[in-house]
Amino acid sequence: MSHDQGLEKLIRMANQIATFFMSQPENVRAEGVATHINKFWEPRMRRHLFEHLDNGGEGLLPLVIKASVLIRRPDAKAGSGVGEDAEEGAPGGKGPASGESLSEPSIPEVRA
After folding, report:
1. Distance in angstroms (rounded) separating the CA atoms of residues 83 and 35
2. What pTM did the predictor assign?
3. Can you spell out the DSSP letters for 32-77?
């Protein structure tokens, strides 16, 4: 996959997350996008997202840009508990380490 294709996929994934959270109350949208990306995107993906944002963020939805101030930069100090799930797998078998898709929003399970 070329760099351009990888960037296009990253933009598409970030925008899909933002599109999902647009259906949520306005006061939780940006936090929802950031929480999802912090929890499920590995540091390399977040690094590429910030490189793109630092170069203007062309193609990203405004909600992704708004959420970016809440997304943990991958060079931030480890141990804060945010963003580490993507590396080790989230509790309960969630996250890419257990095969969960990075492109689907994190939707709480409802049990009947």
Report:
1. 9
2. 0.66
3. HHHHHHHHHS-HHHHHHHHHHHHTT-TT--HHHHHHGGGSPPTTSP
